């Protein structure tokens, strides 16, 4: 972790290092200063790898990128901060099919990448939840009674993995007459259909999506199992971050219909 608090703006010398100035404006998770967006670095190896990838990735007619910016000295990170170009657009979590299509195009564009070594070192609630979902770590106790049916429905899958974006909803921006923009890329090494399932699970739990959304994307490989793993990932991450007493009745209630959808698809896909 960087040690920076999210509500503390980047200092003026950090702004100067990245070639911008002015009063930083809080965007929620990052700061805008001039034509740049700056955020505190949480895990430097990931930031450095991601910056190199995004700087070299060709432009696409299907998505835009928030391109990383170097300091005047050529560094991607300065005093615990990173920067990228400000891209036009706003998130729209009601446009989940468009989010998923943008994610699919992005994943196709990065399918050639090798597995980054930093994934073996990253240790945070999200990485822990991901490893539990993929049976690389044991299922912890707790989970507000939500985990048991998902773990029982989980079965082995054999799908190729690649670098994927693990948090698409809210991180795809829409602007009129422009392709969607992909921002804030948390890197995972999983099948692309899992990344889509995380987006669908989030939409079912938090963004008033209909179960029809899951049905429309059921052509993706091992769809039921990807939904099961997506929900295990989110539930374990929440429990790890907030503890067994960190659940509200509303959060538990939000997960239950999504779990029913995942189990239905998992059962349909069972041999």
Lay out the secondary structure.
Elements: H1 12-17, E1 25-26, E2 31-33, E3 36-40, H2 44-56, E4 64-65, E5 68-69, E6 81-85, E7 90-91, H3 96-109, H4 125-133, H5 147-153, E8 162-165, E9 172-174, E10 181-182, E11 187-190, H6 192-206, H7 211-216, H8 223-242, H9 249-268
Parallel strand pairs: 4-10
Antiparallel strand pairs: 1-2, 2-3, 3-6, 5-6, 7-9, 8-11, 9-10
Helix pairs in contact: 3-6, 4-8, 5-8, 6-8, 6-9, 8-9
Task: Summarize this structure as a short list of keywords or feature phrases.
single chain; 271 residues; alpha+beta; Aminoglycoside 3'-phosphotransferase, Chain: A, domain 2; 2 domains; disordered N terminus
Task: Write a structural description.
The protein is 41% helix and 13% strand. Mean pLDDT is 95; it is low at 1-5. By secondary structure, it is α+β, with helices and mostly antiparallel strands. It has a five-stranded antiparallel beta sheet with strand order 1-2-3-6-5. A four-stranded mixed beta sheet has the order 4-10-9-7, with helices on one face. A two-stranded antiparallel ribbon has the order 8-11.
